[in-house]
Design brief:
The protein has nine helices and nine strands. It is α/β, with parallel strands linked by helices. Helix 5 (133-147) runs parallel beside helix 7 (201-210). The chain starts with a helix and ends with a strand. The radius of gyration is 20 Å and the shape is globular. Mean pLDDT is 83; it is low at 105-109. It folds into two domains: 2-102, Glutaredoxin; 119-257, DsrEFH-like (Hypothetical Protein Ychn, Chain: A, 3-Layer(aba) Sandwich). The chain has a five-stranded parallel β-sheet with strand order 8-7-6-5-9. Strands 1-2 form a two-stranded parallel sheet.
Length: 260
């Protein structure tokens, strides 16, 4: 089974970075205590195991199948997902990811090879609150990722598609203007003059797109909420639900926006 192949490697990674604060928590969906204890005895695991409802787990972490691995940073934000249970958690890339999330220093040695461009996505899954601090922080991280040379895709999915609906040429993302302090901070992150600083969340997303981010909207969700294609702001390119799922699954890090 994929999870049985993956557990020893994940446990070894947790053991290596335990002193730096890496924590491994397993989630069991079967609620079979005898089978769970037998599994722990077989693999000698010492990390905690939570028993959770399948539907609630899928909703909380956005995974569509098991086994799956979810990566959460020190701020409690989900920054990555991997499915299938075949991840190589003993690789140099896995260790580099752990060091990056934990802020751990790399042992001295030869200079590392140039890393490939990382694929990062911003996944909006619920209705958007104008000028919401959580979304603004995620957009800040998208700006930092673009500055670092990463590939960034901003995905409007499910109820969030309503944030792109134009009414008298205006979207809900423009309803709450940024403060002067927010504009100055965003201008610094984006590397633009103060005169070009974003005035609201839509402006911020448009500047991210100008810097190279791709803005996509789930066309299935658009139609499911009774919206016409010409009601959606033209900044967003329509993609199918299958394409959006593929983008999320292929991302090295996925920053999820949800108000639930």
């Amino acid at each position: 089974m994929p999870c049985q192949r993956e557990v020893p490697a994940v446990a070894a990674l947790q053991h290596e970075f335990n002193d730096q604060g890496l924590v491994l928590i397993a989630i069991d969906l079967d609620d079979d205590r005898a089978a769970l204890e037998a599994f722990r005895d077989k693999y000698g695991t010492s990390f905690p195991v939570a028993v959770e409802n399948d539907d609630r787990m899928r909703k909380a972490f956005g995974v569509r199948g098991c086994p799956a691995t979810v990566i959460i940073d020190r701020k409690g934000r989900m920054v990555g997902r991997a499915g299938g249970g075949d991840g190589d958690w003993t690789s140099d890339a896995a260790r580099a990811l752990a060091r990056s999330l934990l802020g751990a220093r790399m042992a001295s040695g030869p200079a590392p090879a140039r890393k490939r461009q990382a694929r990062k996505s911003v996944h909006l899954m619920t209705a958007v609150a104008p000028n919401d601090t959580k979304l603004n922080e995620i957009l800040d991280e998208a700006a930092a990722a673009l500055k670092a040379g990463d590939e960034v895709k901003i995905l409007f999915d499910a109820q969030s598609v309503g944030a792109l609906r134009m009414n008298a040429q205006k979207t809900p993302l423009q309803d709450a203007p940024f403060t002067d302090a927010q504009r100055r901070a965003a201008a610094r992150r984006l590397g633009v003059p103060q005169s070009a600083a974003p005035r609201n969340q839509l402006d911020y997303i448009q500047l991210l797109a100008k810097a190279g981010a791709k803005v996509l909207v789930n066309e299935n969700a658009v139609h499911a909420f009774g919206l016409a294609d010409d009601e959606i702001h033209p900044i967003a390119k329509r993609v199918s639900v299958e394409d959006m799922e593929r983008i999320v699954d292929d991302s090295d890090a996925c920053l999820n926006y949800s108000r639930e």
